[in-house]
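Example 4.3 (complexes with small molecules)
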Amino acid sequence: MNNLLEIVNQATFSQLVLLALLVNFGIYGCSLSLYALLTRFSTSRPMGEKQAVLRSDILLSLLTVLCNTLVFILGVLLWKEGWITLSENQQGFRVLLEVLILTLIMDLLMYVFHRSVHLLRYFRKVHERHHEHESTNLLSLFVLHPIESIGFGLMMLGVILLVPFSAPGISLYLILNSLWGTIGHLNHSVLPASWLKLAKRSYLCTSEFHYLHHQSPGYNFGFYTSVWDVLFKTIHPSSRI
Ligand SMILES: [Zn+2]
Ligand SMILES: [Zn+2]
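Answer. The structure with zinc ion bound is encoded below.
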């Protein structure tokens, strides 16, 4: 990982832009492929009507990838300028602990951000586009207003500006984030009933959890866990334990 960081550190601005595009379009491609695979091999019935893939959704999803690319470039520049410090931690257990801490911090911030965009009138307009998907498809995760994608990115940069996480910890968190977002927007249940019960009891968000948010936008604002929905009484009756 240190060699990779050294290469990024030595890269020119145009090389950095190319790297950022490759990483973010790579994440986009992996998410779409995983979605298609899980849907293809799912044995359960779709949770809702088939959500049509519109041309405007494709364009907006590409704009989201470009916004994420901008945030990536900003993050690397802040690191190069010494504003973001990376911890030297490379040990497996400590990296996993970092991923857990970063996920829990982001879980709270994303709950607050998501609930706010539903409550505040101006931001409600911003978030409306995502909720045009009453059911979900492979692009739903990326059908976001640029304010939302940049807002999420800046929130994450704010956290790593304040707390020095390691490069492997941040990378693993970003992979987990894409995986969670992809599974959250599946229109199929992928977990067996017993696993689903266990996930519910462990306060983990599932495809069913986020699908209910698209159906009933007054409930289930959590992204990784349902803890804040339980505490603030915004949990959907069907998601309660
Ligand atoms: Zn959604
Ligand atoms: Zn929402």
